[in-house]
From TrEMBL:
Classification via PANTHER family: TY1 ENHANCER ACTIVATOR (PTHR31313), ZN(2)-C6 FUNGAL-TYPE DOMAIN-CONTAINING PROTEIN (PTHR31313:SF86)
Organism per entry: Trichoderma harzianum CBS 226.95
InterPro entries for this protein: Transcr_Regulatory_Elem, XnlR_reg_dom, Zn2-C6_fun-type_DNA-bd_sf, Zn2Cys6_DnaBD
Matching Pfam families: Fungal_trans, Zn_clus
CDD domains: fungal_TF_MHR, GAL4
Listed GO biological process terms: DNA-templated transcription
GO CC aspect terms: nucleus
Keyword vocabulary terms for this entry: DNA-binding, Metal-binding, Nucleus, Transcription, Transcription regulation, Zinc
Protein name: Zn(2)-C6 fungal-type domain-containing protein
Domain Zn(2)-C6 fungal-type stretches: 15-45
Gene3D superfamilies found in the cross-reference section: Zn(2)-C6 fungal-type DNA-binding domain
């Protein structure tokens, strides 16, 4: 008989219930089997489907069930995430890991991924690369970008670059940069650039390339100058006018002034043109590389002009465009895309630095965090590394620059300075997160202090030799003839030291034993002296008339220390009073192109009044004629002696050791001269709290993240 009927399998009973229970062989006879007849039992057959056997064929999802090994793996992963949370709380950074979680995994693939993940971590005692899929919210919870996140398909681990291929890439970029520089003269054949006479346009471009460009390397010269002439995608009318607007404050030509009697109107028509282009072209809704660079340049200049709201909005828009275009992602470099990747790297890290500076100025949250950066800061076009530099001399008014000393200057070292500035501002981001956010506590600050301080020391020790500088050595300053961007780099470094250590000196809020924390005070005092010495060197050799605004922040930070030191010593005849006088002179000169510097000057003078600090009559300004719009771009103070400027100041034992100081007059409240958010109207921070806030719960919830604004 067939066991199939109508396409269905017939279910047969092979044993009766009596034989089945006794587990003996059944003869399966009907109506009664031999065993039931022998024992006088009722023979009953129960028809039922065969029981399913557990096998891979019958249960393909068996491996999805939790097993002891899988549970162990999950526990190991849980411990790893807990370590990540502790690491974030202590240092503000994620621990590194080699693992990337792939998108759209099946159940079997997920199980294999977990096992592979734990095997990798058991082999590596210290993870190496941070997972780009992990992030931590303000509550300290670690989260993972889900499979629907675009990051799953965009972020890739950095691939090993063939060193031979990289040499070809670098040589190609360098050759292209040289050829591009040789073609720049063709711009002079044009009559105008967006309505600007070509002579004035070239003048403003030259000013940009001579000073402003070397601070952040936002503009890639070979591509920009080529595309200005050819109308390529790396240039635009908006970017061109942004460069004109920002460079105008360094020009001594009356043509750049809307009102010839008012220097504050410099570049006014270019700022208006940028506004028109943003509106008519809907640029804020159409991200592009030229738009990002133009917004960042304008944001920095608006900060220097004191227009902080506009600066905040434009820089914020640029930061979001960076993410929208994926500039924060790693791009493999080839001969075909080398120029594009070079521009991506420069724009991203330039935006990163601008974002941190604006956070320091305004006391507002950062927009670009180090954990979001998956792009290298290594640059492959090194033409501007060893290019000779000299101060700009306007060919139209050369007599205005006649006081510029004829001194041979060394290489500009722009690439090295930029790369080191990127690394330095990654440390600044950690300081902001651990010391200057709502919810920061004394315990967390003290726990992270040594690690961050060690990172700063390591940063300085690892500087390439061409850009190293010892501000305490007169021989170093006078013999090296350091170019402006190297001096600016060291001013910011010393300001960051004070940014780290000064919160520990605020009266009582760390509940420290009586007496000032000597180590932090010494670090602040020496850093402040270094800043003033470097600023004086800058002023004597190049004039602060063309200095970037970030130097103003460094000098202001130094002044906050000089005032307190002078007050603690008592009397006006001290090293600290001399340093304070020099610093105020620098701020006064910096305020000529940067009108917003008047605010820190007012803050310092009010602090001097509150502390009872006075300086000699006539020493609160620059000992040289007032500089109007017709003065030289590089004119020097009359008393400056470039070969023997009279500094650095010899330091007495009192300066370093403190002596019998009045510490109560030193620290007090730090609310008058905040370091984080000095341009904001309501900015307070962990290191700038009032003494009566000590002991209060500082874990204040904030809708906009962790920062107070």
């Amino acid at each position: 008989m067939s066991d199939r009927q109508g396409g269905k399998r017939r279910i047969l009973a092979r044993s009766c219930e009596f034989c089945r229970i006794r587990k003996v062989r059944c003869s399966a006879q009907k109506p009664s089997c031999a065993s039931c007849l022998k024992h006088g039992k009722e023979c009953v057959y129960i028809h039922q489907a065969p029981k399913a056997r557990y096998s891979h064929q019958l249960s393909p999802n068996l491996e999805d069930r939790p097993t002891r090994a899988m549970l162990d793996d999950l526990r190991a992963e849980n411990e790893y995430l807990k370590r990540q949370i502790r690491q974030i709380k202590e240092t503000g950074q994620l621990e590194k890991s080699d693992t990337n979680i792939e998108p759209a995994q099946t159940a079997d693939e997920r199980l294999k991924s977990w096992r592979d993940l734990c095997e990798e971590r058991s082999r590596a005692s210290t993870p190496n690369h941070s997972s780009p899929y992990l992030w931590t919210d303000e509550g300290g919870n670690v989260n993972v970008f889900g499979p629907s996140s675009a990051l799953q398909s965009c972020i890739k681990p950095e691939e090993h670059q063939d060193p031979v291929a990289l040499v070809y890439v670098r040589n190609g970029l360098l050759a292209n940069a040289v050829l591009s520089r040789q073609q720049e003269h063709r711009l002079r054949l044009l009559s105008s650039l967006d309505g600007v006479p070509i002579d004035l346009a070239i003048h403003l471009l030259d000013l940009h390339w001579n000073r402003q460009h070397h601070t952040f390397l936002l503009t890639y010269r070979p591509a920009l100058m080529r595309d200005i002439a050819q109308g390529g995608r790396f240039s635009s009318k908006f970017l061109l006018n942004a460069i004109f607007a920002c460079a105008s404050k360094f020009s001594c030509r009356l043509e750049v002034l809307d009102d010839p009697t008012d220097p504050s109107t410099s570049g006014g028509r270019f700022f208006k043109r940028c506004d028109e282009l943003m509106s008519s072209g809907n640029l804020l809704l159409s991200p592009s590389l030229p738009t990002i660079v133009g917004l960042l340049l304008l944001g920095g200049t608006y900060n220097a002009k004191g227009m902080t709201t506009k600066a905040w909005l434009l820089t914020g828009a640029a930061s979001r465009m960076v993410y929208d275009l994926g500039l924060h992602l790693n791009h493999k470099i080839t001969l075909e895309n080398a120029e594009e990747v070079e521009i991506y790297r420069r724009v991203f890290w330039g935006a990163f630095i601008c974002d941190k500076l604006q956070s320091l100025y305004l006391g507002r949250p950062v927009a670009i965090r180090p954990r979001d950066a998956h792009v290298s800061h290594e640059l492959n076009d090194i033409m501007e590394e060893n290019e000779p530099w000299a101060p700009y001399v306007d060919p139209v008014t050369p007599s205005s620059s006649s006081q510029t000393p004829s001194i041979p200057y060394g290489p500009i070292h722009s690439v090295s300075c930029f790369q080191q500035l990127c690394l330095l501002f990654k440390i600044v981001s950690r300081i902001i997160d651990n010391f200057y956010v709502v919810g920061a506590t004394p315990a967390e600050a003290m726990a992270s202090l040594d690690g961050i301080d060690a990172a700063l020391n390591k940063w300085e020790a690892n500087l390439p030799s061409p850009i190293q500088l010892d501000p305490s050595s007169g021989a170093s300053l006078n013999s090296r003839r350091a170019v402006p961007n190297i001096l600016a780099l060291h001013i910011i470094y010393n300001a960051v030291i004070i940014l780290l250590h000064r919160p520990l000196l605020a009266e009582g809020h760390l509940n420290l034993p009586s007496g000032a924390p000597t180590a932090s005070w010494k670090r602040c005092t020496i850093a402040a002296r270094n800043i003033t010495n470097i600023a004086q060197e800058y002023r004597a050799r190049y004039s602060l008339r063309s200095a970037p605004y970030l130097i103003s922040y460094g000098v202001y930070v130094a002044c906050t220390i000089h005032v307190r030191n002078a007050a603690a010593v008592g009397g006006r005849d001290s090293d600290h009073s001399t340093l304070l006088t020099w610093s105020l002179r620098c701020l006064e000169e910096l305020s000529i192109p940067n009108s917003a510097v008047s605010r820190p000057i007012i803050i310092i003078k009010k602090l001097m009044e509150a502390k009872g600090v006075a300086i000699s009559p006539g020493d609160d300004g620059i000992d040289c004629p007032d500089m109007g719009p017709n003065d030289a771009d590089a004119s020097l103070p009359q008393e400056a002696d470039v070969e023997n400027p009279g500094f650095p100041l010899p330091l007495s034992d009192e300066y370093i050791e403190g002596g019998d100081w009045d510490w109560g007059n030193w620290n007090g409240s730090f609310n008058e001269d905040v370091l984080y958010g000095f341009m904001g109207s309501q900015s307070h921070s962990f290191g700038d709290m009032l003494p009566d806030m000590v002991g209060m719960n500082t874990d204040i919830p904030s809708d906009d993240g962790q920062h107070m604004s």
